[in-house]
Amino acid sequence: MRLELLTRQESMSKAVFPKLESLLENEEYVKAIQKFSKIDEYDNPIDFLFVEMFPSWRTGYIEFKENNGPKLISNPSLTKNILKEWDRTLCKCVKTAYKHMSWTNFTKDCKKL
What we know:
This protein is mainly alpha-helical. It is built from seven helices and no strands. The chain is 56% helix and 0% strand.
């Protein structure tokens, strides 16, 4: 299932992680993250990966979903270098998803990246 079919609503992180968006055009990578039931808590796979890997942004995500918060791209404290680094990290996490059947092992390995 392609990325656009998994997207139910506007994404907080749209247009912020171009490499990740490109990677998720590959159906195999989408399948690799779909196996985690936590994905159902999110409207978009990119938001899912971002918030779960960077939990300090959970409040911002909730505010965004309640129409009270901005998209990441609008956050002036986030530099291009930070966003590029996060994009690389999230891509590594998606590639790591191939190896893991359990959410616990997946998140443990991703947090090491």
